[in-house]
Amino acid sequence: MNKSYLEKVALKVKTLRAQKGLTQDDLGTNGVSRQMISLLETSKTDITVTKLKIIADNLGVKVKDLFDFE
What we know:
This protein has 70 residues and is mainly α. It is 57% helix and 0% strand.
């Protein structure tokens, strides 16, 4: 994945999480650890579509919303 694209997704996840008043621990459930959330939000890891789906579900948004940053 393109690093700048990953950074945009990371910022979107972090922003949505903060808007919903969730901690990384809150979001890190259902097969996605808090550590994975941290690595994603700091753009230190790529992430699978399956894990993005879990994160989107935990945020109460659609996967496509995680890519709405243009």
